[in-house]
Amino acid sequence: MKIENVNPQLQKAYSRIPAIPFHNPALIRLIQFISKFQKKPKPVPGIAIEDYNFGNSGVRVYKPRGATSGAGLLWIHGGGYVIGNVATNDRECTDYANNLNITVISVDYRLAPQHPFPAACDDCFIAWQWVLNNAANLGVSPDRIVISGQSAGGGLAAGLVQRIHDSGGIQPAGQALFCPMLDDRTAIRTELDALKHRLWSSKNNRGAWAHYLGQAPGLARLPPYSAPARRENLSGLPTSWIGVGDIDLLYEESLRYAEHLTNAGVNCELKVIPGGPHGFEAVAPTAPVSIELFESNYQFLRRVLAL
Predict the structure, then answer these.
(1) HSE-CB for 125 with a 13 A CA cutoff
(2) What's the helix, strand, coil split of the chain in %, to 5?
């Protein structure tokens, strides 16, 4: 994809990003190894940060010091289901805690290919149950929690919301999905390879889905919650927000999911940024279009969490 197609506010940042083959197993192992040494949180004034380990997984909690709003955000990091860790979105999570005065809980889930589905999905569900069981200590009202994530984390968030719906009990107040990785069928569209999307390419997408599913993407049958866009009935899911750029490889599946939610009677807000590649809000967080995206997201959170 030519740099001229990228929003002018983002061109400088994306011109520096090489075409990284995230579908390469050897590279995935190397990145996973390096990331083990980058998990320690940095102190943030006004925010208490603490890690909790569950054995196979865990969470990082960002809690404002002093009185909080009583609302919470369960965050799930991205990385194509194969890379990333609980520290990936430290900046975003501390910003949420600071700017909204909410408690943020970030999930540290297991990664493919060593741990294919349902490992990450199970870890996210365990984290949700942990939050509910520890809501009093966290200073969070169980009915005032939004589930959110970016890229693969957005896909895991969408699958988690579906699983919680089917399990019954306390439901999240909403879901907020950034450029979510929802549909493995996008990965079998080989005509997209030639477009060479910025940051997250069709080949990366195909390889990541294969690692996560433990099988080739696009097959007729998949287990529930593994590819959230495959679910036929979305009725009863919580109010939703989806943010994505229109030159993102995952734009079309995000658009379809938003339409599917709306058609199922779910209140869904779709925020589209022209010329926005995959993950631009993380690559260039100070760009005006990134600030615009987060302001839309913040408005959604303020509304559904009654902030």
Answers:
(1) 19
(2) 40, 15, 45
Q: How far apart are CA 102 and CA 138, in angstroms?
A: 10
CB 2 within 8 A of CB 13: no
Q: Residues 87, 288: contact at Cβ < 8 Å?
A: no
Q: Give the C-alpha separation, 193 to 202, whole Å.
A: 5
Q: Tell me the pTM.
A: 0.96
Summarised one tens digit per residue, pLDDT across range 45-82 is 999 999 999 989 999 999 999 999 999 999 999 999 99
Distance, in Å, from the CA atom of 125 to the CA atom of 182, rounded to the nearest integer, reads 17
Angle at 154 between CA 89 and CA 246, to 5 degrees: 100
Contact assessment for residue 53 and residue 133, using Cβ atoms and an 8 Å cutoff: no
Distances in whole angstroms, Cα of residue 69 to Cα of each of 6, 48, 64, 72, 141? 38, 15, 10, 9, 9
What is the model's pLDDT at position 41?
84
